[in-house]
Amino acid sequence: MAKQAKVSVDPNAGDRSVFQRILRSWQLYVLLLPALVWLILFAYYPMYGLIIAFKDFKIRAGILASPWVSPWYKHFAAFFSTSVAKTTIVNTVLLSLYQLLFSFWVPVVFALLLNQIRNDKARKAIQTISYAPYFLSNVVLVCIISVLFSATGVVNNVIQATGGNIRNFTSEAAYFRPLYIGSTIWQSMGFNAIIYIAALTGISPDLYEAALIDGANKFQRVWYIDLPLIMPTVILMFILAVGNIMTIGYEKAWLMQAGGNTSVSEIISTYVYKTGLQSAQYSFATAVGLFNSVVNFIILVLANLVAKRTADISIF
Amino acid sequence: MAKDKKKSNTPSAILNATPTKGDRVFDVINIIIMVILCVVIVYPLYYVVLASITDPKVVNTGKLLFYPEAPYFNGYAEALAYPQLIAGYKNTIIYTVLNGIVALACTIPGAYALSRRDLVGRRPIMFLFTFTMFFNGGIIPMFLTIKNLHIYNSPWALVLPAAVSVYNLIVCRSFFESTLPHDLLEAAQIDGCNDFRFFFQIAVPLSKTIIAVMLLYYATAMWNTFFNALMFLQDDDRMPLQVVLRNLVLSNQLSASASGAEAAEKQKLVDQLKYVIITVSAVPLMIIYPFVQKYFASGVMLGAVKG
Q1: ipTM of the complex model
Q2: Is the same domain home to B227 and B89?
Q3: CATH number of the domain that residue B179 is part of
Q4: Which of residues 295-314 of A touch B (CB under 8 A)?
Q5: I need a surface site. Which of A201, B158, B241, B298 has the fewest CB within 10 A?
Q6: How many other β-carbons are positioned within 10 Å of the β-carbon of residue B301?
Q7: Do B226 and A137 touch (CB under 8 A)?
Q8: Are B195 and B176 in contact, with CB atoms under 8 Å apart?
Q9: Using CB atoms and an 8 Å cut-off, which of residues 76-95 of chain B contact chain A?
Q10: Nearest C-alpha neighbor of A63 from the set A269, A285, A283, A277
Q11: Least CA distance to A218: which residue of chain B?
């Protein structure tokens, strides 16, 4: 995600017009064509569809012919006048913030500790094991949660055996966030650590030797060498994570929704799906989704600005 | 740890020559943490697999399983006879293969073209792609797009939106930029090689790694696709594995084929079927990933170096 490499200078740039250069490399544009068609049809055409947030969309009439609403913010106002607005916004922000708070540092610590395992085979084996859950789909993940944490599941049985009471982990509101975030950590710790592990292997052994001569123990070497040297990577990943704060995955939240936990598991995107596709309020749901996207985009731009100022790192 | 020293040929082996007492404590604690982590990661998966081949009576007593105590394979026999599950498997394979072909045909040539510095408009086009990573139409406009293109409820409704992942495109472009030297292109051009020939006869054969990585990324994503299927498909017999899995396990739509008399046996089967179905859905990826994970990792690094 670093800055653009070098600005290229085409040696032929001077003696040909732009048009001639385009014409000369027409074959490259042919190669690019399938991706461009995709870009138009499945990325920008849907963006054009966003205008229905300002219209009263009728399936029969289509996007263009549906009437504009007045005032233009009618659907937005309708959303904010409901109590659902506050709940879903709070739930989205809290779920994201807690996730960032509890899961962001785990891969960093894991990478630092794993790097101290000196046996190459053991280290590689642990790393491979740590990726395993990453390849599971959200559905499989939630299914595993549901069978392990159900009332008759193995977790409750262990709790009972040790003298506790059965808890409704999968349907009680209080357990939704811990389960959501815990399973995210379980699933992505190993994979998210890849980038830190790579940064750690790039550290010069001279530094460790120098530290050793100065009498630094292992913990001090991790604390004073490893950690500061991977800090730029950590900061970059943190900024990216902050930028994505409102885009928390709706798939998993929706799958984990059950009975009593909707008071905390209803986030903006699951609400959009329900109102839009299940009760066919297309314009209203689009407006809610657009609100979410715009807020997210603003956060991302701000995070990027901060990164540029402080660390000279930019994702754009 | 003493034995490890000899095996390890990393420069840091020198560092282990004089482990202090504190370092030993650090190592022991570290190894304990790693063992606990591995158990926490592996045990849930192991438990599900074990429960799928153990008598549900034993499973339902809820004790921790470490080996198959009372083997019971009827769940698998039952699952094989479950038409929805077979159809879901078949659909997922079809969608994954179709998507693999379409996605490679879009991503690889596109990424190559965008890796060429002499492509007029490279930066604005790249910006148009990148922008969609940070801002998109969202659920409803996407749904309307699928409707308007008349691909709703067809395999294309899953395959075409997933034909390009901008992240993958960037990874792939970075690969071309870093592995195809400019001199090679110049030399080929002097010999009269045009862009098509250079791409198909030189760039592609040199890029088997990235093609494999792309195929893996796209295949995993399509294998795991759930929500798009829920939104863009309608007929039950077109649903991919993930939707079937969710219907059977999470929405409790399971019912054993037997009816009437053997009610207890039936309930046993239903309980076990959940574990069986989770296992058969996840197993293909679990078998393949140890062999391909190094490619995934290299993809992550390519994506991170240049964004």
Answers
A1: 0.86
A2: yes
A3: 1.10.3720.10
A4: 296-297, 300
A5: A201
A6: 14
A7: yes
A8: no
A9: none
A10: A283
A11: B23
